Amino acid sequence: WEGGVRPRRLLGFDPVPTSTADEFTVPDGYETQVLIPWGTPIRPGGPAWHKDASDSAADQAEQIGMNHDGMHFFPLGNGREGSRRGLLVLNHEYVDQELLFPDGAEEITAEKVEKALAAHGVSVVEIEQRRGGTWHVVNSRRARRVTGTTPVAFSGPVRADHPALASANEPMGTLNNCSSGATPWGTYLTCEENWNNYFGTEEAGWEPTPAQERYGVSASGGGFRWHEADSRFDLAANPGEINRFGWIVEIDPKDPGAKPVKRTALGRFKHEGCTVTESRGRVVAYSGDDQDGDYIYKFVGQGSWRVQRALGRSPLDHGTLYVARFEDDGSGSWLPLEHGTGALTAENGFADQADVLLRTREAADALGATKMDRPEWIAVNPRNGDVYCTLTNGSGWDSAVHPRTPNPYGHIVRWTEEGGNHAATSFAWDIFVLAGDPAHDPQVELDASNIFGSPDGIAFDGDGRLWIQTDVSNSSQNLAEKGYENIGNNQMLAADPRSGEIRRFLTGPRGSEISGVTFTPDQRTMFVNVQHPGESTTVWGTPTPEDPRVVSNWPDFDPEGRPRSATVVIRRTDGGVIGA
Ligand code: FEO
Ligand code: CA
Ligand code: CA
Ligand code: CA
């Protein structure tokens, strides 16, 4: 033990068993409260949600969006007050169009696209804790929705007037906001992930460019079919619009009038998240590109972020973007995506830095970055600076950092930057945990108290507990042929990074994934998101044995209602620190 002192035990709760029930379970001694399900007015007295989904687009723009994902609690006030009142800011990753419209998604109209756009983006709500411990949304001038139509600005090397971004409409909107981040200067970062899914075209003969192909852009799109009703999303009619997506977007939650800003220096890919830390005054932001065979990136800001701010500049506009290379001997390096260096020259087809950033994936290919199994969230241990990244599942790309081929359960990779400096260009890595079920894979060192698969969300709390959330897809969940019959519904676990001990902390309702986690500063309230309960079923109502996998009516259990994504507030009945 460091300094000869045995560290205090980090995990103090009894693990919960796996579950296939349509309920949210927590350990003994904990209590839960459902907060802000999809459709909740962002201000008390706003348009109430209708269980037949008859709310208009204008109503939806004043209500909590769908499919809650990344989230951050910004305290309002200091000390105890800051743990009782704050701004809860959360992403709405995508919409289930079967649930969003009263008549489902067979026909897509302009009106439906408008409502779908309003259900995407980000919500900012002010919440406070009342006597008795429960949390409530309060009226606030800061309450806000950022949607697929909110005016946005661009900054960094790719500006709004770049020819590649030319579009029939003003720059607007953020889409497919998956995980998130928070900056040391108090802003929220929302990350655009599977933005290619919203674009398509019926124009005969349209072909994707190589760059579009590299991002999975196709004429058929990802099933939303918005291009059938709104030419903004038609790849042939409005080709520049799609280049406005794939960015990290900065939102100041305390300034509801400020435009969200797309920070292009951080690159354009399917950003899962954006985890910000500091290194000797410089800002460092880690981000995974969640696709099978894609990469892990980090942005290192130029000079002190405080000085940049004092000069009126964004610390996220000036700096170097790097992509990771993992060597088989446990070492690694960060390769700069800098125009004019290495392979990123005009002779190699990269016109300038803006071009490198617009085609980040191709630039990283040219540098020889290491293909990864779907990099999702990244977390930095506050105790020692180690960095953890979930590789949710994938092909098991041929390299030591992927010990299984294929890799249906995923794992968590960890690295230490050279000299503990997040701005360093080399690191040493190891594997923190291989997920899975030892009944199917003897390499897995987990048991009934902690088997899990497909890790996705991860975050450290202030004490150094690592919280791990899972996203087993509904095409694998609880299925023996996928090796998932013992793992149950998606879940959240807590790990002690020093001992490697892991315990299951909660399980989610049927068909949901657990995504998004944040704490009050005193760590006595935890907020967790339940995304897409009942996904991939149109059978709503009380779960029946006919489809035991995904049928959910959580959290309302109204036979005439429908399942709703929501935030769950978790507290200890004795008011103690969560997880301790
Ligand atoms: Fe939106 Fe990669 O999860
Ligand atoms: Ca995710
Ligand atoms: Ca995922
Ligand atoms: Ca998801």
Automatic annotation (TrEMBL):
Q: Where are the transmembrane segments?
A: none
Highest taxon above the source species:
Bacteria
**Pfam families documented for this protein:** PhoX
* Name of the protein this chain belongs to: PhoX family phosphatase
Q: Where is the signal peptide?
A: none
